[in-house]
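Page header: ASSEMBLY MODEL / four components / 296 residues total.
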Amino acid sequence: MNGFHYRIGQIAEQAGVTTRTLRYYQELGLLEPSGHSPGGARRYSEQDLTKVKRIRELQELMGFDLQAIRTIVTAEARLQQLREEYLAGADVPRRHEIVREAIRINDDLRAEVRARLGRIRGFLDDLNSKAARYRRLLRSTEPAAAGR
Amino acid sequence: MNGFHYRIGQIAEQAGVTTRTLRYYQELGLLEPSGHSPGGARRYSEQDLTKVKRIRELQELMGFDLQAIRTIVTAEARLQQLREEYLAGADVPRRHEIVREAIRINDDLRAEVRARLGRIRGFLDDLNSKAARYRRLLRSTEPAAAGR
DNA sequence: GACGATGTTAACGTAAGCGTTAAGTTCGAG
DNA sequence: CTCGAACTTAACGCTTACGTTAACATCGTC
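Prediction written out in full:
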């Protein structure tokens, strides 16, 4: 059902990384390919591609190292696992446990993202007021120029 | 007038870095101490501390490497130089040139910061909708619970 | 079934950003 | 003037996140 027909080179290109990077992520336990060819070559799914892009986002936008990212994606994989258990009709206490953990991880991450967002906003505000100052300075040396 | 009485260890502590980091920044031409003691020890000013913090912000918030940061802080140092020339009564075309360059650098940086801000916002939106889904999932398995 | 493109593992290499150590010098309080 | 804390340069070390190369296997198209 869930197809995994993509080769490593294709996923690498789509994600904007190299094949080395994908193998390295696997080494770290960050991203296991969804399947393998008869001969043993890695085969990836579209979900895998999404995961790679997510890892990159966490790296570039949040500046996390791969160990921290592993914690996050592991938690998310657990939720995926829950969905399967859920569909298979797992016992309720177990479901609760996993969802609560997912919520906790998600909330932590959200808090960090929000904090970062705030800091960047402040940084941008600084830049904006600097920009205004620069332009005032420019106008003050060029007082008689009308709009063009 | 402009005092530079701080020792490297004090600045390092204030900025949350080590002395090694400050010396490394100097190696890279990122931050020259404002002065020296008679014996040759580095002496920093409060402005220097501000610069260090700025470098750290560009590193942590924007993910720039130190080479890119060097370009930015160099441009800002040029503006500082302008102020001195300005006060000394430099010729107008030169002032224009430098201010325009400062504006260009500032605008480029602002564009990058805004882009990053947008991406992080999108990322946060994703997390928020995920959070909502998780909580719905939790409520669906716990239908009869009132507020506690 | 040939064969070029693409894949495999294993190993060493590399750049950035400092950490650490060594061996000596200077600072400043008493 | 002394003496411990803080500084100096110089050099090698270390971690992360891959890049690169070698030597070989497999894929899939003709």
